[in-house]
Amino acid sequence: MDGLLKYLSRYKNLTPPHASAVKIFVKTIRDECGIILSDEDVSIKRGGVIMSCHPTVRSELLRHAPLIIEVLHKKHNVRISYIR
Predict the structure, then answer these.
(1) Residue 30 falls within a domain, yes or no?
(2) 51: part of which helix (H) or strand (E)?
(3) Is there a contact between 62 and 29 (Cβ–Cβ < 8 Å)?
(4) Per residue of the chain (84 residues), what is the pLDDT tens digit?
(5) How many domains does the chain have?
(6) For position 80, what pLDDT does the model report?
(7) What is the mean pLDDT of the chain?
(8) Angle, alpha carbons 53-31-25 (nearest 5°)
(9) Which residue range is the domain that position 75 belongs to?
(10) 69 inside domain
Protein backbone atom coordinates (compact mmCIF):
# COMPACT_ATOMS: atom_id res chain seq x y z
CA MET A 1 0.00 0.00 0.00
CA ASP A 2 2.87 2.39 0.76
CA GLY A 3 4.30 1.74 -2.68
CA LEU A 4 1.01 2.67 -4.30
CA LEU A 5 0.73 5.87 -2.26
CA LYS A 6 4.29 6.80 -3.19
CA TYR A 7 3.54 6.16 -6.87
CA LEU A 8 0.31 8.19 -6.84
CA SER A 9 1.91 11.08 -4.96
CA ARG A 10 3.77 11.97 -8.17
CA TYR A 11 0.50 12.87 -9.83
CA LYS A 12 -0.86 14.93 -6.94
CA ASN A 13 0.41 18.29 -8.20
CA LEU A 14 -0.09 17.93 -11.93
CA THR A 15 -0.99 21.11 -13.74
CA PRO A 16 -2.38 21.63 -17.23
CA PRO A 17 0.18 22.03 -20.02
CA HIS A 18 -0.56 25.73 -20.39
CA ALA A 19 0.00 26.50 -16.68
CA SER A 20 3.60 27.53 -17.29
CA ALA A 21 2.48 29.84 -20.11
CA VAL A 22 -0.05 31.44 -17.76
CA LYS A 23 2.69 32.07 -15.19
CA ILE A 24 4.93 33.61 -17.84
CA PHE A 25 2.03 35.78 -19.05
CA VAL A 26 1.26 37.02 -15.52
CA LYS A 27 4.95 37.77 -14.90
CA THR A 28 5.23 39.68 -18.20
CA ILE A 29 2.14 41.74 -17.34
CA ARG A 30 3.66 42.60 -13.96
CA ASP A 31 7.02 43.56 -15.48
CA GLU A 32 5.76 45.54 -18.49
CA CYS A 33 2.57 47.19 -17.19
CA GLY A 34 2.93 47.06 -13.42
CA ILE A 35 -0.42 45.29 -13.06
CA ILE A 36 -0.60 42.35 -10.68
CA LEU A 37 -2.91 39.52 -11.77
CA SER A 38 -3.45 36.11 -10.24
CA ASP A 39 -3.15 32.89 -12.20
CA GLU A 40 -6.88 32.27 -11.75
CA ASP A 41 -7.72 35.46 -13.69
CA VAL A 42 -6.00 34.23 -16.86
CA SER A 43 -6.85 31.32 -19.12
CA ILE A 44 -5.39 30.31 -22.45
CA LYS A 45 -7.78 29.00 -25.10
CA ARG A 46 -7.10 28.38 -28.80
CA GLY A 47 -3.89 30.38 -28.92
CA GLY A 48 -5.20 33.43 -27.12
CA VAL A 49 -5.48 34.78 -23.60
CA ILE A 50 -8.82 35.38 -21.95
CA MET A 51 -8.85 37.46 -18.77
CA SER A 52 -11.54 37.62 -16.13
CA CYS A 53 -10.70 40.79 -14.25
CA HIS A 54 -12.09 44.27 -13.66
CA PRO A 55 -13.00 46.10 -16.90
CA THR A 56 -10.63 48.97 -16.09
CA VAL A 57 -7.70 46.58 -15.72
CA ARG A 58 -8.72 44.75 -18.89
CA SER A 59 -8.86 47.96 -20.93
CA GLU A 60 -5.38 48.95 -19.70
CA LEU A 61 -4.05 45.53 -20.70
CA LEU A 62 -5.74 45.72 -24.10
CA ARG A 63 -4.09 49.08 -24.65
CA HIS A 64 -0.68 47.42 -24.11
CA ALA A 65 -1.61 44.17 -25.91
CA PRO A 66 0.75 44.55 -28.92
CA LEU A 67 3.69 45.22 -26.60
CA ILE A 68 2.80 42.27 -24.37
CA ILE A 69 2.44 39.89 -27.31
CA GLU A 70 5.77 41.05 -28.74
CA VAL A 71 7.61 40.61 -25.42
CA LEU A 72 6.12 37.15 -24.91
CA HIS A 73 7.25 36.10 -28.38
CA LYS A 74 10.76 37.58 -28.24
CA LYS A 75 11.80 36.86 -24.65
CA HIS A 76 9.88 33.72 -23.77
CA ASN A 77 8.99 32.20 -27.17
CA VAL A 78 5.31 32.01 -26.18
CA ARG A 79 3.04 32.62 -29.15
CA ILE A 80 -0.22 34.33 -28.33
CA SER A 81 -2.47 35.64 -31.07
CA TYR A 82 -4.94 37.74 -29.06
CA ILE A 83 -5.76 39.06 -25.60
CA ARG A 84 -9.39 39.43 -24.50
Answers:
(1) yes
(2) strand 48-51
(3) no
(4) 778 777 777 776 666 667 888 899 999 999 988 999 998 889 888 888 998 989 999 999 989 999 999 999 999 888 888 888
(5) 1
(6) 87
(7) 86
(8) 55
(9) 16-83
(10) yes
